[in-house]
Amino acid sequence: MPAPTRPQADLFIIGGGINGCGIARDAAGRGLSVTLAEMGDLAQATSSASTKLFHGGLRYLEFFEFRLVREALEERETLLAAMPHISWPMRFVLPWSPDMRFEADTPTSRILSWTMPWLRGRRPAWLIRLGLFLYDNLGGRKILPGTRRLDLSRDPLGLPLKPGFRLGWEYSDCWVQDSRLVVLNARDARARGATILTRTRVTRAERADGLWRITTEGPGGTRIHHARALVNAGGPWVEDVIRNVAHIPSAEGVRLVRGSHIVVPRLYDHDRCYFFQGTDGRIIFAIPFEEDFTLIGTTDMDHRAPPGEARCTEEERDYLCAFASRYFARPVTPDQVVWTYSGVRPLYDDGAKSATAATRDYVLSLQDGEAGGAPLLNVFGGKITTYRRLAEGALARLAPFFPQAGGDWTARVPLPGGDFPVDGVEALVAQLQARHPFLSPRLSRRLVRSYGTESFLLLDGAASLGDLGRDFGAGLTEAEVMWLIRHEFAQTAEDILWRRTKLGLHMTEAQRRELEAFVDRHHAAHSAAE
């Protein structure tokens, strides 16, 4: 029996990470018909394994990546205005030590080695201050406060550190819940008419009669789709899609770089983050995480295994513990680690000598096919902060094929739940508690930080905690679980505990198993009803 055929779309997008979902949202908002297929869950790979920052990339200035840094700095505030529930300003403390070193092959280190050989690869304090001055001024900063100098021997921000650190600076960047960012882009794309298919693998894509003919395998079996253009946003699998799905020869490729993180019980009481520079030229962050923990990362290591096999190795765990322990007065040890995660960054292979030096910029490669056939756009690299600009760039490359499409529109347009002022979180929490006084302050804040104004829809009609159904632990109720299943593409307990939320960190193994059984029973009953 031939596979069922779906109606023709303007765009078919492979990949449900931030780039794929961002392009789907942008394209659907321009009036194009869009289908997106993701082989697993949304944000299942790289897009849920970031350091969870909207940041300009302070260290990229050493590589003279001024355009990338400026674009990322401009985007911080653009994105902040569109999603004040899942993103918020954070202040970073950067302690200085004379032991700090450049990585040997950065352009800045080479220039200083030639002009100031007596530095012997050290990062001088004046150069860091110059970098922070550029960081404050390259991107037209309006919302975020600027840099200030710190005396860490007197400032309370120096208390968690070893006593030898005196000079430091405090500067601004932004936090973002990366997995929720992806899901909210997918939700908005669907609301604008896009078809979002999860757990659906693309097995073949070929040009036929001026269109792309795409074969998928998903919950409904084998399907055939037709599209006027194909976007390959496969992330770490982008090369696999080119060679083994579309069967197109290409000299372009990605450099897979693994970034691993560790999570430990909270190391200090304040809400600032730390930016630590190492003697090997690398940097790591220590960030307050999920109220009770500190997130430490990331590593930069070439990854030679399949992308889906990214794991934080014992070597990386020990490296991060030792790195943080050079700064914190109380050592960070492997036995403190309660969770690790690791993702593979699909960096464009620019031939850099080291993983750290490989460009974080994105490359959009358009192939028209023979005689102007159906176009293929391959997306290489990118970073979470510039996903919206990448999507605009992708639509600009495809514009000649879709003259009917609308123009750029996504800047500062709220994602679902983000339709309130940047500084309006506290007011929204107060409103939620006033309407639902049975909520604890902690739960109210978590709901607002996850769902924004949609918290009121999630809780609609509830006059007590009992009205929200079963409590699975850590404040996760049946009402929230069903919201995530019905509205946010969640299909498994893992989707809920580690991507839509991070409540798996706060729950016992027994509670996690109870949730898993509930979700399985729900899907079984739903399938039987169909």
UniProtKB/TrEMBL annotation:
Its GO CC terms are:
glycerol-3-phosphate dehydrogenase (FAD) complex
Q: Which GO terms describe its biological process?
A: glycerol-3-phosphate catabolic process
Can you tell me which family this protein belongs to? Belongs to the FAD-dependent glycerol-3-phosphate dehydrogenase family.
Residue ranges of the Alpha-glycerophosphate oxidase C-terminal domain?
410-519
Ribosomal protein listed as a keyword: no
PROSITE patterns referenced in this protein's UniProt entry, alphabetically: FAD_G3PDH_1, FAD_G3PDH_2
Cofactor needs: FAD
Q: State the organism named in the record.
A: Paracoccus pantotrophus (Thiosphaera pantotropha)
Q: What class of enzyme is it?
A: oxidoreductase
Q: Which residues form the FAD dependent oxidoreductase domain?
A: 10-387
The organism that produces this protein has a lineage beginning with:
Bacteria, Pseudomonadati, Pseudomonadota, Alphaproteobacteria, Rhodobacterales
Pfam families recorded for this chain? DAO, DAO_C
Q: What Enzyme Commission number(s) apply to this enzyme?
A: 1.1.5.3
Q: What is this protein called?
A: Glycerol-3-phosphate dehydrogenase
- Keywords linked to the UniProt accession: FAD, Flavoprotein, Oxidoreductase
Reaction(s) catalysed (UniProt annotation): a quinone + sn-glycerol 3-phosphate = dihydroxyacetone phosphate + a quinol
Checking InterPro entries in the record gives:
DAO_C, DAO_C_sf, FAD-dep_OxRdtase, FAD/NAD-bd_sf, G3P_DH_FAD-dep
**Keyword Flavoprotein appears in the UniProt entry:** yes
Q: What is a single molecular function from GO for this protein?
A: glycerol-3-phosphate dehydrogenase (quinone) activity
